[in-house]
Amino acid sequence: MVPWLEGLIALLLVAGGIFAVIGALGLLRFRDFFQRLHGPAKNSTLGVGCTLLASMLFFWVQTGDPSGREILITLFVMITTPVSAHLLTMTGMHHRLQRTEQTQGEPYELGSERDR
Questions:
Q1: What 3-state class would DSSP assign to 32?
Q2: pTM for the model
Q3: What's the gap between Cα 46 and its chain centre?
């Protein structure tokens, strides 16, 4: 295998691992539901994307033809993660989950208490 391609694959794997760890740390560090949802939704998507790209490059070089499975998995993850994060956020707003002082803003769908 070409050395620069091995370096690229290794870099993508390390970047994927770093993104996944940052997403996990965000899940542990943040205090309320809405803040906790942000870290894993963004960073885990990037981590899985980098890892799948590294896998796709590695097996493309080894076998000589690109694999459609990794492309489909990447597309599936990139489409479903933001949708599921949005649905979880809307559910949290519907159930009026408690927010900390660091979570700023008022959900526009719910309005303020004085409007009722």
A1: coil
A2: 0.76
A3: 6
